[in-house]
């Protein structure tokens, strides 16, 4: 969740809020390398550089045109963030590291000069140390990588690799492996670098690593080899002529190191079997003799999408020759696996599967000369008839006459499509229009997302799939101005995320907006004290408000109640009886000592020198109810001890 950290274990689920000035306005995360633009707004370096690289020339917050695209490090904010992280370590917050100074072109040129000097002096150890330093800088940040790649480091390292490869492989194995490792971090390589790496000496050296190198050496060699073969057909033919190259590539599949190595090896083999040169038949036949057809079919049973696509591409190339097709005819998994991959993996996988089936069907009779039909074709026809029977049994009676006489599943399906295509297309257009006009109103994010997902599911049932990218675009466009900052944050993201990830981020953003919009409103009732006064009933008495000459209560006296008075059961902040003022001179009610009319004067009485508030209370002291603050400077309570008196009043009377 952006701007939030949680420590459930140590603090029992306490939510810790990151200060707003510590968060990047784009990503809403804690800034790790704060930098300031020419507009004065501070961002995290990674987020603002992504924003600028996307072609934007304005400040994301102020929309002012940037006079300078080079951000300045904000060391003050960075130190404050580090101090805050240290202070909140008990909440599980880790201190952000001090960012390193990015490398510049001058430093890169100096390191490349050292590499070339070491290569001329045949100083393998010195060259390896400089290359290791370059590799460390590339891994440090994307900014460093762009600066290093932009200074033609790939060309220099490729030429250095070729120069050391011309000498002994065994003597320079350390520096050669270090250079290969550094080159894997600089893809894609330019044409000059690929040309130097595609020389006969360099290719032989990489094949040597594939056969005799360690795990890291074999991995780096096949990755660089895949990059070299991707753009030059001549390099593909040259690799096929090197002894042991094909066996080493197949070994990386039978004895995989990691998924990346397997994919790179499959791509290298695909380039070789898909070659249009005259030697392609021999290369494909050699791969088929190594059992690669059976290996690809077994790999297709349970593999991820990327590996399935590459394996189907290799199998398609293998079925282009007689030996490859013969191996496919003999394998029991050929037809079931290929049919299963159609329309279930990806468009590429479907195209490759259909191409393989077409190549196998085109050569339905084996080339052995006996004219016997292909048993795989019989299996395919039997499965097609079973699917056709299922379609006929599942349609309604009104549709059944249209399917009479259709020989294959494809014909039956085309008949149904032609019959219902017009209405189906209209319904699809209507649903697409609903997606285009999605708008997030006052409904919750959950309701909004469920509505969008429901439309996409309806389209999916009509065989009109909506990709995650399209659905994400429709949902984000319809969010409205309240989510403007959120949409900008999504535009700056470089990593991939699916629709479920977007749903989670939208729920988080909705909670954040709700929390920020909530205003603590103090109810007006806190400014008043309730006082329940008894009603003045009609009755007898001098001061009752009933019949009589006086209709108002006398000052400094408690009103009497007539017949029919019922005490109030409601809660009140003070008692309902008024307390008379007692004169300290004559002990009479109704006046003060300083205006006492009695000639008797109590000389012992002295008025208080310091003014204070008088407290009226009952003798029993039973009411402990507080009066709410009315905005005055004094408060009333039935118990003086309940008041927190910090200092004695010394002001004027």
From TrEMBL:
It catalyses: S-ubiquitinyl-[E2 ubiquitin-conjugating enzyme]-L-cysteine + [acceptor protein]-L-lysine = [E2 ubiquitin-conjugating enzyme]-L-cysteine + N(6)-ubiquitinyl-[acceptor protein]-L-lysine. Its EC number is 2.3.2.27. The keyword Zinc applies. CDD domains: RING-Ubox_PUB. It is an enzyme of class 2 (transferase). It holds the Pfam family ARM_PUB. Residues 583-598 form the CCHC-type domain. Pathway: Protein modification; protein ubiquitination. Residues 554-573 have a biased composition (Polar residues). Residues 539-552 have a biased composition (Basic residues). Transmembrane segments: none annotated. It comes from the Eukaryota. Keywords: Metal-binding, Transferase, Ubl conjugation pathway, Zinc, Zinc-finger. Functions as an E3 ubiquitin ligase. This is U-box domain-containing protein.
């Amino acid at each position: 969740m952006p701007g939030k950290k949680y420590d459930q274990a140590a603090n029992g689920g306490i939510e810790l809020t990151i200060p707003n000035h510590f968060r990047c306005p784009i990503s809403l995360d804690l800034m790790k390398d704060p930098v300031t633009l020419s507009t004065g707004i501070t961002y995290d370096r990674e987020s603002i550089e992504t924003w600028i690289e996307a072609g934007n020339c304005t400040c994301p917050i102020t929309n002012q045109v940037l006079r300078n695209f080079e951000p300045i490090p904000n060391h003050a904010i960075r130190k404050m963030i580090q101090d805050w992280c240290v202070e909140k370590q008990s909440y599980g917050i880790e201190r952000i590291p001090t960012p390193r100074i990015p490398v510049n072109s001058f430093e890169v040129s100096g390191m490349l000069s050292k590499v070339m000097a070491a290569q001329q002096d045949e100083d393998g150890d010195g060259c390896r140390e400089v290359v290791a330093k370059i590799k460390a800088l590339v891994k440090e940040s994307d900014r460093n990588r762009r600066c290093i790649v932009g200074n033609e480091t790939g060309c220099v390292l490729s030429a250095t690799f070729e120069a050391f490869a011309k000498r002994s492989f065994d003597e320079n194995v350390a520096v050669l492996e270090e250079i290969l490792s550094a080159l894997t971090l600089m893809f894609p390589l330019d044409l000059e670098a690929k040309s130097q790496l595609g020389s006969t000496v360099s290719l032989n050296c990489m094949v040597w690593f594939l056969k005799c190198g360690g795990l890291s050496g074999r991995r780096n060699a096949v990755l660089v080899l895949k990059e070299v073969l991707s753009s030059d057909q001549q390099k593909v033919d040259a690799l096929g002529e090197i002894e042991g190259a094909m066996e080493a590539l197949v070994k990386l599949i039978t004895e995989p190191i990691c998924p990346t190595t397997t994919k790179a090896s499959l791509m290298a083999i695909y380039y070789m079997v898909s070659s249009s040169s005259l030697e392609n038949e021999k290369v494909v036949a050699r791969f088929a003799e190594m059992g690669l057809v059976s290996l690809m079919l077994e790999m297709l049973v349970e593999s991820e999408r990327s590996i399935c696509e590459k394996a189907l591409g290799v199998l398609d190339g293998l079925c282009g020759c007689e030996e490859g097709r013969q191996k496919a005819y003999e394998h029991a998994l050929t037809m079931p696996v290929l049919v299963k991959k159609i329309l279930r993996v990806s468009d590429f996988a479907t195209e490759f599967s259909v191409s393989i089936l077409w190549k196998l069907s085109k050569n339905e009779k084996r080339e052995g000369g006996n004219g016997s039909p292909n048993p795989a074709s019989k299996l395919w026809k039997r499965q097609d008839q079973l699917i056709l029977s299922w379609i006929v049994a599942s349609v309604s009676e009104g549709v059944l006459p249209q399917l009479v006489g259709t020989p294959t599943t494809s014909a039956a399906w085309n008949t149904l499509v032609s019959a219902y295509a017009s209405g189906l297309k209209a319904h699809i257009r209507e649903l697409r229009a609903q997606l285009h006009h999605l708008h997030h109103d006052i409904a919750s994010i959950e309701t909004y997302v469920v509505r969008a997902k429901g439309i996409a599911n309806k389209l999916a049932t009509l065989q009109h799939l909506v990709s995650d990218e399209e659905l994400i675009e429709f949902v984000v466009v319809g969010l409205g101005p309240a989510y403007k900052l959120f949409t900008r944050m999504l535009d700056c993201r470089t990593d991939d995320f699916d629709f479920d990830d977007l749903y989670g981020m939208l729920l988080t953003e909705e909670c954040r907006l709700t929390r920020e919009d909530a205003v603590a409103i103090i109810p007006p009732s806190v400014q008043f004290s309730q006082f329940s006064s008894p009603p003045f009933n009609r009755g007898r008495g001098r001061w009752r408000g009933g019949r009589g000459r006086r209709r108002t209560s006398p000052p400094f006296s408690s009103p009497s109640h007539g017949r029919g008075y019922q005490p109030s059961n409601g809660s009140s902040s003070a008692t309902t009886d008024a307390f008379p003022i007692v004169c300290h001179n004559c002990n009479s009610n109704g006046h003060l000592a300083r205006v006492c009319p009695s000639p008797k004067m109590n000389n012992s009485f002295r008025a208080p020198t310091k003014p204070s508030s008088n407290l009226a209370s009952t003798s029993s002291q039973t009411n402990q109810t507080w009066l709410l603050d009315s905005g005055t400077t004094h408060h009333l309570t039935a118990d003086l001890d309940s008041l927190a008196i910090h200092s004695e009043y010394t002001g004027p009377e």
